[in-house]
């Protein structure tokens, strides 16, 4: 099973008020960001991650938090 599959299932049901494009954009971006996070963790584990990648890792966390908040707000509406 793909590690991102449970996260993808979480976002399948979207509000009918949102456009199809905007409904798909945030979850797709979120999955891409999480995959990038996992790649960085893997590189860190084997000792080949750079300082720049670690900075990007921290920046992605901020965007991930923002997207989660947007998706939670959208589901609550």
Describe this protein's structure:
- With 77 residues, the chain is mostly helical.
- It has a domain at 28-43 and 51-77.
- It has helices at residues 5-10, 20-46, 51-76.
- Helix 2 (20-46) packs antiparallel against helix 3.
- The longest helix is centred in the middle third of the chain and has 27 residues, at 20-46.
- It is elongated, with a radius of gyration of 14 Å.
- The protein starts with a helix and ends with a helix.
- The mean pLDDT is 83.
Features of the shown structure:
single chain, about 80 residues, mainly alpha, 3 helices
Helices and strands, with pairings:
Blueprint: H1 5-10, H2 20-46, H3 51-76
Helix pairs in contact: 2-3
Query: End-to-end span in angstroms?
Result: 31 Å
Instruction: Label the structural class.
Output: mainly alpha
Roughly what percent helix? over 70%
Order of helices and strands: HHH
Spans where pLDDT lies below 50 across 5 or more residues: none
- Rounded mean pLDDT is 83
What is the count of DSSP helices, taking H or I runs of 4+ residues?
3
Q: How would you sum up the global shape?
A: elongated
Q: Count of DSSP E strands?
A: 0
Residues in β-strands, percent: under 5%
Radius of gyration computed on alpha carbons = 14 Å
Largest sheet: none
